Amino acid sequence: MPPEERMKDDVRLQKLPPMRYFWWGLLSTILASLAWLRLSSVPQFTTTTTSSSSSIVLPPSVHDDHNSNTLQLKHIFHHGVGSEQYMIHKRLDITPQYLAKHRAYFTSLNENLQIESIEESDWPTIHHGKNPFQIKLPFKHQQNKARRLKERNTPGFIDSYLEYARSVNGDAKILGRINLEWVDDDVSIPNITDRDTVVSLATIASNAYVRFPKNDDEKKKSDWIDVGGWDPDEDNHDVNFGWDYDGLRGHVFVSDDNKTVVIGIKGTSGAGLPGGGSDETQRNDKTNDNLLFSCCCARVGYLWTTVCDCYEKTYTCNQECLEKELRRKDRYYEAALDIYKNVTKLYPPETTEIWVTGHSLGGALASLLGRTYGLPAVAVEAPGEMLASRRLHLPSPPGLPKHLEHIWHIGNTADPIYMGVCNGASSSCSLAGYAMETACHTGYQCVYDVVTDKGWRVNLLNHRIHTVIDDIILTYNETAKCVEQAPCRDCFNWRFV
């Protein structure tokens, strides 16, 4: 604008009456306020600076789905096993008061998990810095049908059926005369094609390995609630000393709306098998591993100590003896049934969707529990449990279409335990005292072929839950395709009488 024109404008502004200034200022203020209100109604994204660059942090896409939610740890169940502890069943509620009481412990736990996860706790790297007792895990679900026993939750029904099935040696003709009533229920199942959901379920399996505060006896007694049939002996009040070192543990996660409950069953602990966690329950873990996944009581050779007395002679085993051993009250399968029953007292199955998951031994137990009660089950790197399922004579609906079976096994081709090749005199499992002789799974197999895709070699370290989450599931753009188990038979060279 020429200088002369600017001077004319200045003169005109100077001649404006004072009231005009007032209305002009008020109008400007109103327009500015409207603009600010419009901007404030738009979602604001936060820019964060990382060590390498800046990026926009968008809301997780999983929360955009109306079928998505989050899960958080609410309870821990511990069921004793063994001849001295099997009647002990306790529950720990993860309340705000409990978390506040042990705040110092959890602060230390977070720091230790970041340092020691690979070496000891096996807590996934993706969750470093997150408290395992407060972490929120996203998941997606979808609706489907499930064919299961109508009376499955009637008290005593499942126990009576399993006992009768064992008494008739699982004879299909005799069991067929019972005329079990099956129903097709509308159920919510995990979306196995969603990577976040698979990671969350695997994390719940990993969470079951994490240690909880137990610095002294007083804390144990004040935090844990008795939920089983065990009554303390007044004359021997220390009978429960060490109860938490022998047994099966179930970590119960609950969704925000209390409509979905996921039970994470603890897997194998102990030296020799890199599953995760400490050696808290090592002795009974090994006993139940060898009972569930060996051909005959871990009778591998003359130098082996068997876990039951069912071996008769070379490659000959007493079938009835094996079945009795699996159903003993102090074994893990029975403990898993009791944990489920006590969870349903808090979350009735009529109004709650209950899923089960676990890693290794915990995954196999999750599958067996899922098949018993018709629950969706996701097992991570579990040994073959088909043989145990048959020995237990678990109920199976006649003519069950595969799309109504909701048991998934997540595995990888470089894990010798999942693939069923961790056996033989020189194998790592055998050297550690484990007879892992089964390879056949039930349900769907969702296998990551890391041997072909990544050039990995078969190694026992690839069985770790930390490796599965951080180095396998999260490195693939899609989840593994789930297919039916190919025709498979374990212990084909054994004779069961």
Automatic annotation (TrEMBL):
<dbReference type="GO" id="GO:0034727">
    <property type="term" value="P:piecemeal microautophagy of the nucleus"/>
</dbReference>
<keyword id="KW-0072">Autophagy</keyword>
<dbReference type="GO" id="GO:0004806">
    <property type="term" value="F:triacylglycerol lipase activity"/>
</dbReference>
<dbReference type="GO" id="GO:0005775">
    <property type="term" value="C:vacuolar lumen"/>
</dbReference>
<keyword id="KW-0442">Lipid degradation</keyword>
<dbReference type="GO" id="GO:0034496">
    <property type="term" value="P:multivesicular body membrane disassembly"/>
</dbReference>
<dbReference type="InterPro" id="IPR050805">
    <property type="entry name" value="ATG15_Lipase"/>
</dbReference>
<dbReference type="GO" id="GO:0004620">
    <property type="term" value="F:phospholipase activity"/>
</dbReference>
<dbReference type="InterPro" id="IPR002921">
    <property type="entry name" value="Fungal_lipase-type"/>
</dbReference>
<dbReference type="Pfam" id="PF01764">
    <property type="entry name" value="Lipase_3"/>
</dbReference>
<comment type="function">
    <text>Lipase which is essential for lysis of subvacuolar cytoplasm to vacuole targeted bodies and intravacuolar autophagic bodies. Involved in the lysis of intravacuolar multivesicular body (MVB) vesicles. The intravacuolar membrane disintegration by ATG15 is critical to life span extension.</text>
</comment>
<keyword id="KW-0378">Hydrolase</keyword>
<dbReference type="InterPro" id="IPR029058">
    <property type="entry name" value="AB_hydrolase_fold"/>
</dbReference>
<comment type="similarity">
    <text>Belongs to the AB hydrolase superfamily. Lipase family.</text>
</comment>
<feature type="domain" description="Fungal lipase-type">
    <location>
        <begin position="339"/>
        <end position="369"/>
    </location>
</feature>
<dbReference type="GO" id="GO:0046461">
    <property type="term" value="P:neutral lipid catabolic process"/>
</dbReference>
<keyword id="KW-0967">Endosome</keyword>
<keyword id="KW-0443">Lipid metabolism</keyword>
<keyword id="KW-0812">Transmembrane</keyword>
<keyword id="KW-1133">Transmembrane helix</keyword>
<dbReference type="GO" id="GO:0006660">
    <property type="term" value="P:phosphatidylserine catabolic process"/>
</dbReference>
<protein>
    <recommendedName>
        <fullName>Putative lipase ATG15</fullName>
        <ecNumber>3.1.1.3</ecNumber>
    </recommendedName>
</protein>
<feature type="transmembrane region" description="Helical">
    <location>
        <begin position="21"/>
        <end position="39"/>
    </location>
</feature>
<keyword id="KW-0735">Signal-anchor</keyword>
<comment type="subunit">
    <text>Binds to both phosphatidylinositol (PI) and phosphatidylinositol 3,5-bisphosphate (PIP2).</text>
</comment>
<keyword id="KW-0472">Membrane</keyword>
<dbReference type="GO" id="GO:0032585">
    <property type="term" value="C:multivesicular body membrane"/>
</dbReference>
<keyword id="KW-0325">Glycoprotein</keyword>
